Amino acid sequence: MGKAMKHKRVTLAIVLLLVLMVLAACSSSNAPSDADGTNATVDEGGAPEKSAGEDAVKEEDLEPLPISFMIPLYDAQPHRLEGNPAVENYESLLNIDLSIDYVPSANYEDKLSLTLAGGEMPDVLMVPARSLKSTVFINAARNDVFWDLTDEWEKYPNMKSIFNQTMLANISVDGRQYGIAIPRPTARVGMLYREDLFEKHAIKVPDTLEEFYEAAKLLKEKEPDIIPFSFVDQLGETPWNGIDLLTVSEGGFSIWGEVDGGLQPYYETEPHLTVLNTLRTMYSEQLINRDFAIVQGAQKKNLIKTGKAAMYFTAYDDLMGISDDLAQVMPDAKLALKPAFKELTNATSGHNGVFALPKSTVTTEEKRDAILSYFERALDDEIRRARGYGIEGETYELVDGIPTFISEEIRTEYTTHVRALSNTFINPTVTRLPTDTPLQTQVKDAFEKYAELAVPNAIDPFVSETYTERGGELDKILYDARVKFIMGELDEAGYASEIKKWRSQGGERIIEEYSEAFRRMKK
């Protein structure tokens, strides 16, 4: 099985795979999700269902379809494909031959830019969410570098069933989709809180900004050694740190919203300023950690997971991992999730990027459709179970109908092997499993309940050329002003002056460009 990046003659495999694809399109599938509902790399599919047309052609008689990927690597070393039993079983089931260029995640954006600028392309190029609005990707899409997949989804019921219109709009360039969306929950941001402390002191779990402030004051009074609110503010952090959630709960925008037929940001709106003023008061009263502006990376969760803080805004699905960490140091502590304030939360983009198919390597419609058929079939229950557990009788067995690894040693070994397949498929955002814990159920309930209630950022589907070119520089003005205001280093006049500076140095142009794109869409 060759693993170097190469391009084989695949005509026979493509034609016969298309037979499977057309037959499969005649029936729909429920396409279950992964174990924790967040498109994880290890699946726990439900009872297997045979794909339509599975018996029509014996795939073992076909030559495997080679598919090359370029994806980020989040582990210290590249994964082994050759001789990897998890990979070989997966390839055999799907009749494919994978080759994967693993690029260290810290260098991925640079490698992506070089590849798009003229480097050797794979068949499938992962484009992370943060790169979708980059100049290099937008220009590539506009210059016909990738296949336009906008009109293809009707042929692929598994994929169509897990894509929603918000997700598809947000991956689009000029209204067209140049890749396969990697789904993520649309509603995902909430508040974790120490349920044991709230119960111990009969403190009301907050549902408004005012109640949030009052809860922090009571926690400070009752538990003086604990920081009431673990706060983190870095560039790009507001969708996750509670600022946007609290702003929408006060009736504001999720950063951007519609005003008089155009789009405007929330920086000087009353709901947002109310939130910033509350945080300013909390900082002055030592209800917030003093280092909120410098905490980064893994340190962001330290206070809540070590029992030193009582409230923390983050992704819903952090509940399980942080609860496990907290139990190691404080076995009696208990975390719970508050997924929304006033039944509102800020929406995420609903995706984690796309898998783009370059035309320079995927040179025909037949090969394009064969690769799309791979992604479609990878959502089948049988494939998901095999990817998640391996081979029945060898790595897992069914216990009361639930796939269960034969031993902990086998589970550890298989999980290590299957990581090689990370980021080579897509999953739905939520699947209910018989093995779900109460915390997993709580998170999945929140994903589903608030998916339609989450307030979107109105600019997510659009592109501003000025923001693409200068967004980082201009965002720094806004970020510095916000931090200095919360810390009391700027008053309201000083904050307003910084927003005026942002407008004059490019912000007004960004507003105009987003508004123009918005008005074009509304026509």
UniProtKB/TrEMBL annotation:
Keywords assigned by UniProt, alphabetized: Cell membrane, Lipoprotein, Membrane, Palmitate, Signal
InterPro entries for the chain: Bact_solute-bd_prot1, SBP
Signal sequence, start to end: 1-31
Pfam families: SBP_bac_1
Biased composition regions of type Polar residues, renumbered to the chain: 30-41
Stretches the record annotates as Disordered: 30-58
Record flagged with keyword Cell inner membrane: no
Name of this chain's protein: Extracellular solute-binding protein
Organism: Paenibacillus sabuli
Organism taxonomic ancestry: Bacteria, Bacillati, Bacillota, Bacilli, Bacillales
